[in-house]
């Protein structure tokens, strides 16, 4: 998506997408996902953090292009298997990576033989009691973190994530007591971080890996790779980033005397730019000094603005398909929910801002970009709104990857107790 007016998405007319699938609808461009995968091919393993967007069509696309996957729940293990991933292999096609085992996830990894990346000391004991002799990876909190928001910072003492770095000696002893073999080290400090902090992760992993010793078989660079948000934002220098990690890997290989696999674990980087949310403008109203475009999509569809103050590029798609330039104006963009925070144009902390957009009328569509990650995956039924449809476009052909929820779907599983 580019420019304030759009008439096509991934080569398909917006009017056709709306006619066939309605609104609100997420549309994913498969070619963008594949291009991001190609950019990361220099790493030995690209392991998709599927929590960003776990639709089976996206998982299948990643699998067919050689990407492995992580899972943070029994449900994500089930999704990966449904998308065709095997449960065992070298390197493991699915890696369970979390800070706890709930009871379902522990049973799932044991039943299917899914390897585990442990983010808490208690996980080592719980897994070791049931699977002595297995291999594990350790996710370590290096004592610092960074991200595009405090809520996406996954390192430091304010973060629940990972094993605190000062406890590494203790967890290595715990693993040994259960005959668990520590074969890898993983550090992830946050989503949307910068090159300086990503480089610090690299050095931290090297120190932790040395303490693991000759049993080391892999190191993971984690995720958090930033994507451009504002016009003119530079892309991350992947050549420089890979060199940092490759040099680290080679030093460790020299010390342990065998090959060390280098993994990277992108989520948002693979899918954010591939996805847009198409919504219909249902009201244009002035409130004092503010002009509002109100959509049929809200934070039940895209929660990142209300959660993080995240910015998403926006464009108008005229209902009549006419792409002639229109005068632009400052607009506040909001949704339909009975909630004051249902505003797409807001800063972190809930401060409302405006977006410069073309004049629009009821019935025109508003297209929200960078909506491929942490959008549908965080969707809810707040206000009893059905979940949106999801569409994957491949080679100019649109495929309904998930049908819109029906009103009956909303109440499926609910029941009223018998009258007394």
Give a verbal description of the structure.
With 420 residues, this protein is α/β, with parallel strands linked by helices. Helices cover 28% and strands 23% of the residues. The strands form three sheets. Strands 3, 13, 14, 15, 16, 17, 18, 19 and 20 form a nine-stranded mixed beta sheet that branches. An eight-stranded parallel β-barrel has the order 4-5-6-7-8-10-11-12, surrounded by six helices. A two-stranded antiparallel ribbon has the order 1-2. Strand 19 and strand 20 form a beta hairpin.
Shape: globular
DSSP helix fraction: 25-40%
> How many DSSP E strands?
20
Largest sheet: 9 strands, mixed
Spans of at least 5 consecutive residues whose pLDDT stays below 50 are 146-154
Distance N terminus to C terminus?
Answer: 57 Å
Structural Rg: 23 Å
Compute the average pLDDT. 93
The fraction of residues assigned to DSSP E strands is 15-25%
Helix segment count? 12
Question: Which structural class should the secondary elements be placed in?
Answer: alpha/beta
Blueprint of the fold:
Blueprint: E1 8-9, E2 12-13, H1 14-21, E3 25-29, H2 30-39, E4 45-49, H3 56-64, E5 68-71, H4 74-82, E6 94-98, H5 103-112, E7 116-118, H6 121-130, E8 135-141, E9 163-164, H7 168-177, E10 181-186, H8 195-212, E11 218-220, H9 238-256, E12 261-264, H10 268-271, E13 275-287, E14 290-295, H11 304-308, E15 314-317, E16 328-334, E17 355-358, E18 365-368, E19 389-394, E20 397-402, H12 407-411
Parallel strand pairs: 3-19, 4-5, 4-12, 5-6, 6-7, 7-8, 8-9, 8-10, 10-11, 11-12, 14-16
Antiparallel strand pairs: 1-2, 3-13, 13-14, 13-18, 15-18, 16-17, 19-20
